[in-house]
Amino acid sequence: MRKIMAPPSKAHTLRAMILSFLGEGQTKIIRPLMGDDQKVCLSAIKALGASVSEGIDEVVIAGVSGMPQLDGQRINMANSGVTLRFLTSAIALAKKSFCVVDGNEDMRKRPVAKLVDALGNLGVRVKYLGREGFPPIEVFGGGFRGGTVELDGNISSQYLSSLVIAGACSEHGISVRLTSELVSSPYVEVTIDMMEEFGVNVKQRGPKEFVVEGQQCYRKDAFEIEGDYSSASYFFGASALTRTPLYIGNLNINSKQADKKIVDILRKMGVLITEKSEGYEVENMHSRLNCVTVDMSDCPDIIPTVAVLAAFAEGTTAISGVGHLRYKECDRLAAIITELKRIGIEAESDGSILQIKGGIVKGADIRTYNDHRIAMSFAMAALREPEINIENKNVVAKSFPDFFDKMQHVFSKQAPARQA
Q1: Which of 80, 196, 389, 392 has its CA at a distance of 20 to 30 angstroms from the CA of residue 405?
Q2: Catalytic residue among 36, 102, 259, 301
Q3: pLDDT by residue (tens digit) across 27-78?
Q4: What topology does CATH give the domain 2-213?
């Protein structure tokens, strides 16, 4: 049985960096993921006053004790949505001055209005410098003292995480009341668990109210990053598609990561997956997968993975909870449908449910839309249909820089995805 170790968790690494940035003293982050997003985050927190030292398989961050340093600097967050959204609230904790938060052209299409409105209701001054509701924005210090605020949670869970993380460092603390169902709620669970690991208490009053006392301090000497189910999902899927028995290690089987759901989905598709102490054994004996009907509103990052698997399934797969895919690194819903059709697969959506009819996959050049998850998902299909070529493969650097090397190494008897 072949073996692969899951890379470090993207979500945990970014949260550890943000919490360490706002914290007191030094925090050693052990085995961090060092993709493009993490490099953007480290650059941003250094610009805001943190001290950062990078070593082999570790990063040491000396925090700002809840008081970022602003001097009118302009910080480019590239296309790291977590970094931009989390730091927008954190920047407002500064005592004075301002900071301009911007990103690349893709980031300027990603909404921040719900977060900006919530901050405004807490007394924070934020000014749009371009299109209303989108970056770039000018964030002023001196206004985030805390309070009670309502928040619409149907666009991104990152807004809630941003507010509660910063709220712990505010004078009065924060109470956030959701006015809608929260998408990707397991990511908020990860945020709260990590806040508590760093010494900050979060109280939840029912499913829609989160309370954090103010004047708390983040402190953690060392934090080790667990493996990433999002990145591992492509190896689960590739193993199933190629019928290559595979052990996937460095995964916490008790993890609260939303994308752990890939295990249950593949089991429903007919794949044998056995839990081990620190990972899983994957074995598929069937030439065709089963179609599934599944709600993926809590785990949008693995929808592209499941969508590509559905192309090789018998029957029609229905994925609900796909609406907020439109607000990711690209319009992922449109991208998935377009690229599935490009390889000969019927796919359609009414905006809330994505339906994919399994069939015969043909070769094509796959556009990636500058989106790492589109590239990695369709790379699985290329293992079954070698005439599928992935354009702009380097987009995977955002979360999994050596993805194609690992894929080729593990599935060396299958044709790896080729550059178009």
Answers
A1: 80
A2: 301
A3: 999 999 999 999 999 999 999 999 999 999 999 999 999 999 999 999 999 9
A4: UDP-n-acetylglucosamine1-carboxyvinyl-transferase; Chain (3.65.10)
Scanning the structure block, which residue is given the tokens 């805001």?
48
State whether residue 213 is helix, strand or coil: coil
- Assess whether 301 carries a catalytic annotation: yes
- Distance from CA of residue 398 to its chain's centroid? 10
**What topology is assigned to 229-419 in CATH?**
UDP-n-acetylglucosamine1-carboxyvinyl-transferase; Chain (3.65.10)
| pLDDT, tens digit, 9 for 90 and up, residues 336-384 | 999 999 999 999 999 999 999 999 999 999 999 999 999 999 999 999 9
Contacts of 105 (CB under 8 A, 6+ apart): none
Inter-residue contact 219 to 23 (CB < 8 Å)? yes
Residues 292, 269: Cα–Cα separation, whole Å: 7
Tokens of 28: 């050693």
Length of the chain: 420
